[in-house]
């Protein structure tokens, strides 16, 4: 019988015929129609059969079917230790090094765990700490396929699950704890990070401790920074799911009050990534998810170290721009709070012109995102802040004023429409003197409740930029734009002073 099986595998029969013949053999074996000697002969060469299937010229689909129906089905059979070890060796090499077959690594994991589950004693002796460390030392150059990097972690998690009650479990967990940082750094892949996160969430003893924990969090941030967003819906949903899993682990680590160093290290890594204006590609919007699990209070203290008079305006402009872009990522619901916090810190440092520049750059983008229900509320929070706080210039408001009637009509059945209308009334109060521009807008506001004058003044007062150093409201003279590198600055248009401003500036520039 064993020779017949090998003969089928090595024959020139069409793949469909080979499959039918092997299926009949499997059925025959299940009905116990083999003699004891024949049965043991088949088991004795089970590793050869597996290797024969993997190295055959059959199409991958047929190979997979043969393995699933023949090998996995026979995993509960009694095998000699040598044959079992050989099968574990073949399947683990398949998963870790991809030097056996082009079939999916997930099938190799299935084969390994199927045999290992029925031979735990052999598994425990086979998976030594050195072997596990060698698996986690595999580099991109060694592993030819990206799937292997993730499948290796899945395999290790399955092994730990099988050996939970065994003496070797603790030693193997320590190896994972020690090697996790290196593995994530070597393979900056969201799938690898997701599977590592699942492993650590299942077995908390595998989470690095002390300084390695800081390194692990930084490596996780770096992985998220290079995560690409697929254009197809299935791929997008997969990435969202993977990031959610990673965030569960980071929340477990970073929400612990005793792990302040991890929080600080993660914020520093994130800032260094987004502040690199010379980088080849933009950091992924997925980074916005990191801010969801970082305590805002600690973040404010750390960011103060970066927002100083010596910090280049171009760097801060890039950082703010990226953070605003992250609002579009579904898992970035609280990013607007970080943007507001950072803008307040910029105010305290007197960088008013930067706030105006960023507001003018991004106001149209933020406004248009109100049309997307999933991210509407967070964009409304930020839009209100940047427009009501930027009281020294009407330009950001004027960039969107012509589109507000259309947006109000689109949001008619949403409570945000009233918020938008109220904000618009306040802005009309702040920036008067443009009747031709505002007339179409006034008609669209008729359907919404108008705030009282006291309510408008209170809103203006609440959003007025404050001098964080002196603790007093800024006077109008303090809010003038910073001088350019020429040593000069323009005059702010109060709504009806444009001609006067131009005349004064023309006279000023007349040299004797």
Tell me the layout of helices and strands.
Elements: H1 2-10, H2 15-30, H3 36-44, H4 46-55, H5 60-71, H6 81-96, H7 105-117, H8 120-126, H9 129-135, H10 146-162, H11 168-186, H12 190-202, H13 211-225, H14 233-254, H15 260-274, H16 288-293, H17 296-303, H18 313-325, H19 335-348, H20 352-368, H21 376-389, H22 395-400, H23 404-410, H24 416-430, H25 435-444, H26 453-463, H27 498-508
Structure description:
With 512 residues, the protein is mainly alpha-helical. Helix content is 65%, strand content 0%. The chain contains 27 helices and no strands. The chain has helices at 2-10, 15-30, 36-44, 46-55, 60-71, 81-96, 105-117, 120-126, 129-135, 146-162, 168-186, 190-202, 211-225, 233-254, 260-274, 288-293, 296-303, 313-325, 335-348, 352-368, 376-389, 395-400, 404-410, 416-430, 435-444, 453-463, 498-508. Helix 4 (46-55) runs antiparallel to helix 5 (60-71) and helix 10 (146-162) packs parallel to helix 12 (190-202). It is elongated and about 95 Å long. The protein starts with a helix and ends with a helix. Residues 29-45 and 467-481 have low confidence and may be disordered.
């Amino acid at each position: 019988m064993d020779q017949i099986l090998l003969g089928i595998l090595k024959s020139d029969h069409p793949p469909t015929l080979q499959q039918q013949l092997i299926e009949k053999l499997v059925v025959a074996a299940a009905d116990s129609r083999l003699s004891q000697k024949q049965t043991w002969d088949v088991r004795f060469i089970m590793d050869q059969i597996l290797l024969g299937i993997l190295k055959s010229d059959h199409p991958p689909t047929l190979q997979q079917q043969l393995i699933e129906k023949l090998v996995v089905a026979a995993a509960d059979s009694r095998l000699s230790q040598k044959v079992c070890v050989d099968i574990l060796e073949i399947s683990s090499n398949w998963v870790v090094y991809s030097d056996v077959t082009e079939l999916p690594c997930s099938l190799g994991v299935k084969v390994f765990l199927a045999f290992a589950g029925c031979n735990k004693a052999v598994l425990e002796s086979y998976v030594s700490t050195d072997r596990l460390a060698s698996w986690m030392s595999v580099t991109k150059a060694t592993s030819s396929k990206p799937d292997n990097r993730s499948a290796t972690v899945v395999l290790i998690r399955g092994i730990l699950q099988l050996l939970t009650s065994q003496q070797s479990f603790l030693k193997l967990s320590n190896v994972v704890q020690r090697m996790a940082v290196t593995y994530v750094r070597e393979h900056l892949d969201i799938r690898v990070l997701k599977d590592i996160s699942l492993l650590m969430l299942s077995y908390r003893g595998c989470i690095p401790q002390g300084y390695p924990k800081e390194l692990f969090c930084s490596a996780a941030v770096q992985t998220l920074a290079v995560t690409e967003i697929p254009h197809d819906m299935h791929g997008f949903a997969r990435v969202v799911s993977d990031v959610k899993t990673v965030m569960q682990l980071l929340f477990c680590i970073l929400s612990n009050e005793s792990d302040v160093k991890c929080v600080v290290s993660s914020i520093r890594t994130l800032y260094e990534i987004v502040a690199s204006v010379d980088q080849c590609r933009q950091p992924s919007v997925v980074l916005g998810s990191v801010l969801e699990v970082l305590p805002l209070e600690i973040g404010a203290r750390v960011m103060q170290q970066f927002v100083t008079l010596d910090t280049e305006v171009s760097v801060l402009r890039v950082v703010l721009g990226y953070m605003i872009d992250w609002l579009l990522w579904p898992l970035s619901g609280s990013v607007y709070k970080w943007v507001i916090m950072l803008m307040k810190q910029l105010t305290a440092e007197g960088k008013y012109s930067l706030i105006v520049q960023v507001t003018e750059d991004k106001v149209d983008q933020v406004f248009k995102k109100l049309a997307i229900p999933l991210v509407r509320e967070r964009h409304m929070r930020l839009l209100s802040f940047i427009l009501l706080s930027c009281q020294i210039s009407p330009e950001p408001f004027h960039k969107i004023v012509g589109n507000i009637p259309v947006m109000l009509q689109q949001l008619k059945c949403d409570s945000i429409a009233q918020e938008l209308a109220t904000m618009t009334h306040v802005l009309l109060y702040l920036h008067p003197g443009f009747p031709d521009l505002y007339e179409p807008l006034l008609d669209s506001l008729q359907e919404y409740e108008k705030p009282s004058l006291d309510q408008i003044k209170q809103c203006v007062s609440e959003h007025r930029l404050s001098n964080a150093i002196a603790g007093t409201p800024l006077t109008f003279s303090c809010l003038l734009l910073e001088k350019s590198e020429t040593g000069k600055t323009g005059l702010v248009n109060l709504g009806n002073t444009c001609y006067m401003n131009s005349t004064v500036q023309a006279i000023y520039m007349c040299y004797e």
